[in-house]
Amino acid sequence: MILLATFLLLVLLYGIFSKTIERSVLTAPIIFTAMGMLMVVVMPELRDRKAEGQDILLRVAEIGLVLLLFSDASGVGLRLLRSVRSLPIRLLSTGMLLTILLGAVGAMVVFPSMSIWEAGILAAILAPTDAGLGQVIVKSPLVPKVIREALNVEAGLNDGLSVPFLLFFIAMAGDASGAASVHLWKFIVEQLGYGTLVGIVIGGAGGVLIGRAVARGRMVEAWKQLAVVALPLLCMMVADGVGASMFIAAFVAGLAVQGGYAEASKHSVEFTEQWGQLFNLSVFFLFGILVMRAVPHFTIMHVFYAVISLTVVRMVPVAIALIGTRMQRSTVLFMGWFGPRGLASIVLGLVYLELQQGDAANATIKYAVMITVFISIVAHGLSAKPGASRYARAMALLSKDAPELQEQGRSAA
User: Fold this and answer.
1) Nearest to residue 319, comparing CAs of 149, 95, 127, 158?
2) How many Cα atoms are found within 13 Å in the side-chain-facing hemisphere of 322?
3) Could you tell me which of 352, 380, 357, 288 has the C-alpha nearest to residue 123?
4) Where are the domains of the chain?
5) Where are the alpha helices (DSSP H) in 257-359?
6) Mean pLDDT throughout 83-100?
């Protein structure tokens, strides 16, 4: 009760001073994570509640990510999917695959005891980016529209696309060790197959029902949002019951719902930007508690991997993905740096720990993920406003026909 009361009080205070805070370099994730860490200092007994804290965080985080995946997927238009040479597609294909590959290679170098599959697990967990940590970037008029949209779409979809990779690596690691409860055939049939089926059925059928009701004037305006939001939560419950991946189900449902109800993305985005923020901020608050507990276990190698994950592992794939776009070096560096790790990595890390028994590799993955996300929360949060301003000055020097300044963006050479 004390934790809940503290969190709600923090939400109230943040709301009261939100305009003042948003004029500074501080962000909501930084503040809520810091307050979670402070709670452990004020209440030392929290250090002993490991299982309780992790269970609460896992459930809250799962709900938050399920809503986010559905919302992001429901906003994917056919124009984007057809535009195979667009910036988002480059980042989500070449960029993401190279990020996972380079992240795995880096993990095996930094942590020699890791197997190739365990390194893949760590890389897949840290592959998704979080636009929520860089709201200043994706909403700033100082940043060219095409760049903002590319980073926003990338962050919106790479979390859902990371899930199959993570489950595959977990399955392969389990088959190799014989210790995991998830095996390759279960990954293909249950996690992917059932998850996709649940998403298609619930998202497709729900979209048709809502769409027809709206077309015939049967729905009150206020209930449109609630009906749409019920779909990913229903996916979550059904997927959990049949042993499927709730994240794949929610993501596929977001894609399927558009067939019957094109306005679904509008209502899902409205919810995630309002009530969904409570889930996300509570995750960062509880994440701060877990980080403070883990401080004695962090090593210089965990920190070193975090640094290369946020720099080399992110920036090199982005640079390669943007070859041929004629983008300026400042743009490549800007897009490479602003790939923060946040909610998705926290949830996927917890999902992995939930599936595995504790051992040295699991501990390494756990602490590497935690310190990477923590550094990202602070570094990307503090650098967002200064970075946007500096980038805007570089863009002001370009001619009007520069690719970054085109309304639709030209990614082809």
Assistant:
1) 95
2) 23
3) 352
4) 27-400
5) 264-273, 275-294, 300-310, 312-321, 329-337, 343-355
6) 83
